Amino acid sequence: MSLPVLVLAGSRDGENDVLAKLGQVSHKALLPVGGQPMLARVLDTIARTPGLGPVTISIENPDCIKDLAGDATILHSAPSPSESVAEAIDRIGTPCLVTTADHALLRPKWIEEFLAKAQGCDLAAGVALRATVERDVPSTKRTYIHLSDMSFSGCNLFLIGSPKGRNVIALWKRLQQNRKRPLRMALTLGLGTLLRAITRTLDSNALYGRIQKLTGANVRLVKLSDGRAAVDVDKPSDLTLAEQILARTTP
Asked: 20 to 30 A from 21, CA-CA: which of 3, 88, 195, 225?
């Protein structure tokens, strides 16, 4: 039985995105990385990973990727990533693997490791520990989330393992809507949880427990063993780094 895959390819800025302008393309997902559009790289990796498919792509301008999409279903993306995932999952169902079009370095073995470690979760997110990223990609500057027992960067790999995972997406949507209203975020998460996060006294188990209390879902951060999995192409320096990594990496 194959696992459906959702690829998030939306861009708030469309053709005005800095990377789209840099690559002289109509959309960020079409940016050439090592001579191949980012989206094409991601779709190729999915095709080479056993047990995946069918593929759905969420993007605000479906016409711009029709030549690359192949047999994939294309959906109009919503205004935010959380809404795009929620709307797509309503059609795809669960379980479902979610990744992004800007994950140009994505490799089958990362997906296989992630899925093997994410078994039994209602929702899992792939991460790379800061020490792992700094070991494997010492020249990169990533954004890290700091908990009391780990500092990590996201790897743009998510497994929505059961219908309960949708409750976590709904929570994500509420937090995203209130990201500029700290008090409302505090009321959503709980003031104690927010204060512990700010003071870096919140550990991963406490975070899992709070999310489970709010959503009923069993969630996990899945640590990947290759720090390169945390490198996406989100700015011009990422493009340079990704092409350098590809140039010295065997397929």
From this structure: 88
